[in-house]
From TrEMBL, chains A, B, C, D:
Upper classification of the organism: Bacteria, Bacillati, Actinomycetota, Actinomycetes, Pseudonocardiales
Domain of life: Bacteria
UniProt-annotated binding residues for 1-deoxy-D-xylulose 5-phosphate: G157, A183, G184, S205, T206
Pfam families for this protein: ThiG
Protein name per its UniProtKB record: Thiazole synthase
Protein's UniProt keywords contain Cytoplasm: yes
Name of the gene this protein is made from: thiG
Keywords: Cytoplasm, Schiff base, Thiamine biosynthesis, Transferase
Pathway(s) the chain acts in: Cofactor biosynthesis; thiamine diphosphate biosynthesis
Keyword flag Transferase: yes
EC class: transferase
Amino acid sequence: MDDLIIGEHKLSSRLIIGTGGAANLEVLERALVASGTQLTTVAMRRADAEGGSGVLELLRRLDIELLPNTAGCRTAAEAVLTAQLAREALETNLIKLEVHADDRTLLPDPLETLEAAERLVADGFTVFAYTNDDPVLALRLEEAGCAAVMPLGAPIGTGLGIRNPHNIELIVSRASVPIVLDAGIGTASDATLAMELGCSAVLLSTAVTRAADPERMALAMRSAVEAGYLARGAGRVPQRFWAQASSPPR
Amino acid sequence: MDDLIIGEHKLSSRLIIGTGGAANLEVLERALVASGTQLTTVAMRRADAEGGSGVLELLRRLDIELLPNTAGCRTAAEAVLTAQLAREALETNLIKLEVHADDRTLLPDPLETLEAAERLVADGFTVFAYTNDDPVLALRLEEAGCAAVMPLGAPIGTGLGIRNPHNIELIVSRASVPIVLDAGIGTASDATLAMELGCSAVLLSTAVTRAADPERMALAMRSAVEAGYLARGAGRVPQRFWAQASSPPR
Amino acid sequence: MDDLIIGEHKLSSRLIIGTGGAANLEVLERALVASGTQLTTVAMRRADAEGGSGVLELLRRLDIELLPNTAGCRTAAEAVLTAQLAREALETNLIKLEVHADDRTLLPDPLETLEAAERLVADGFTVFAYTNDDPVLALRLEEAGCAAVMPLGAPIGTGLGIRNPHNIELIVSRASVPIVLDAGIGTASDATLAMELGCSAVLLSTAVTRAADPERMALAMRSAVEAGYLARGAGRVPQRFWAQASSPPR
Amino acid sequence: MDDLIIGEHKLSSRLIIGTGGAANLEVLERALVASGTQLTTVAMRRADAEGGSGVLELLRRLDIELLPNTAGCRTAAEAVLTAQLAREALETNLIKLEVHADDRTLLPDPLETLEAAERLVADGFTVFAYTNDDPVLALRLEEAGCAAVMPLGAPIGTGLGIRNPHNIELIVSRASVPIVLDAGIGTASDATLAMELGCSAVLLSTAVTRAADPERMALAMRSAVEAGYLARGAGRVPQRFWAQASSPPR
């Protein structure tokens, strides 16, 4: 795979992992190593299972870049403040912007997200913006200066995969920044499909951390992302209604 | 991945390739190597693009086991005769049984297939039976002594993927022999899904040989099969209607 | 809707109802009337909820033609015998042929079904053949002289709808006799889709009889079949990737 | 069907038609009559095929209520002005709010739509708001005082049906105002599904006006909406993995 460039960062892995949902630090470590990830997101306002600062030390030890996120924020103001605290504490200008509208859907609030994105870009952050799969909003977030736009496949934690591949294709076809499929991934074929649709990377958390065997699922996701990336570039065969023999009669 | 045992044969790759549709021998060689396949099927009655016996020499050189197939046969009698000629000429008791009902669908003829399977098993062949996705016929073929049952995802050459995952799940849930997804694969996520549904392996030809870049698509399929195999074993998260946060509020 | 001709029978309703699953005769009567059906199938070997001969009297009173079926039979011989007993007792040469392979899937046994069809046609029956959605077997049943071929949408009682629309389209595109979608219908849109795919009629039982409100669901199915029939003939608009304004700018 | 109440308006038909795309006034008239619609939307800024004021006279003659729309507007300001001109000219306070972000997708601009909705509600309009299928924005539009929220199934004119049924279900499950499926409908089963998902009505234009036979497709859509409405209320059977006989063995 080619390196993925987001802002000034270069990644050879196209799988971004979230730490939420892991049973403990040992499980998380094995999963992160298996995934091959080089970028991992941690909620600044949530108590991850592993608790305290252990997860930050773990990422440092594994030499995985930290992508702080603002999950749990409800307004632009909260998200901006959370991002600023994260930058100060963690010495990174990377921020995954998440502004959730409510607890039942955890869907992004489109207006607060856009407003926060504008303010964070103006404040010098490299913004990864979590968004719904609306092609209009995706373009607005790119125009606002986001380094990556991260449409969901389905609501967080549902494992429903990519509910609307057509929207992801529309987003990709008009984007100039990397599109990262974020949220909704349930299993490996979802990740493969995301890459085949043209996404530049996949972000997932509980699909790995809450699988029966997180380490093995992390390995699966690593291969799945690679498979989809390669397939996208290989130029698939067209779909046909009638059969076609693979070789003509002798 | 664990080794796949079919009859008396042991395979560490779960990707079986068909040679039909390759532009020439060089392209085919690169694709086969990239795929990591250890078992490749060649039509005894079809003129493969590469012509003549070149493909057989190629497989020998690459140390890939040959799985002759009876594509192009319309009756049990034709298929049995073709299999016997293949065994004699190629010194293998492996046979991929294909009895096509007609040229427009290339769908297997269920009655002729079952009859041919019974006769070939009685004649000492290790039979890989290409079949539709009917769970009843799949069980009959297993009972007839086939070493592997190979339901289609969609008609040959359509690239439509797995049209009926429910049937594949029904087949897998009752099978005691390996189920190999055969025909219909269009891109990597199709192969990943096949393995997630519980198939033991995937067989494909033109999805690789007719891709814009066959070598790259072969690499993609290799990763895709691995991803699906690992994900199946890793125990995916359940699907939910409402969202669920990956970590509880702090 | 045009009349539907099956064998020598003419039907103005394209909704065929099965009586199985009804809570009692009153519920069944209201559902049958609401459905507008003119042809209703009764299992000769099963104890319908309404018990005894009540259902036959009900059909007579409602002037609904009876289509006896062989549900519960496991072999061609059983099915032929059941059909002959039905003809004698009920004075109809109509028979819905069902040979179930096993209890968990209730899927039709393809070989026994085909053999029974041949024998019943030779014996003068007007045969409605319940079959899987295999386009090859559908054609064989037509060639055997069946008056109608009845592929399933999904296994009986699953309510999964039409699992493989592609197969139904393949069957319809090659058929010269009416294709009736049988089994798997769960709700109205499934019936509409069946007709849009080109089926001539829809047969369903528990989608109506086990709905919370069977009479209302019967009305829904009546409209659903009509909607799909009309839409098929109306020539739908093509699908597009990009939007298209309904009217040009002024 | 129960009457549908939107704002102060009562409708016995749950099919709202758009006039765009009709070949001429005669075709449009036959389609409108066949559809049974009582509410029809006309673009204030677009040249409908029928031209000039003919369509308005036609609606008056057929006693169909007019729902002016703001299609073609790009900003909240344009939409508000267009709505005000429509109110003055047509003596109706109904307005279908559409603010399209661009010509290729014709997707609604979420921010401009919400702003326009707030201003129109404050100005005394009964607002039908065309929106994407984002459950968060749908709730915001309801909170802004819209009388009906109209999520799309797919982009205008694509005929792709309902790309994301999960989102429509999420929207319906939290709504207190009628949800009207708007845009994307291609054929009858799409309309049936919309109603089964819990929508209160369906709005469509070119699925009827550009069908090969618009009058017949209008009839189909009328039945399709009725079917879906009835089925929703009838309480469908659950989906099962394994089969279930409709009646127990005798």
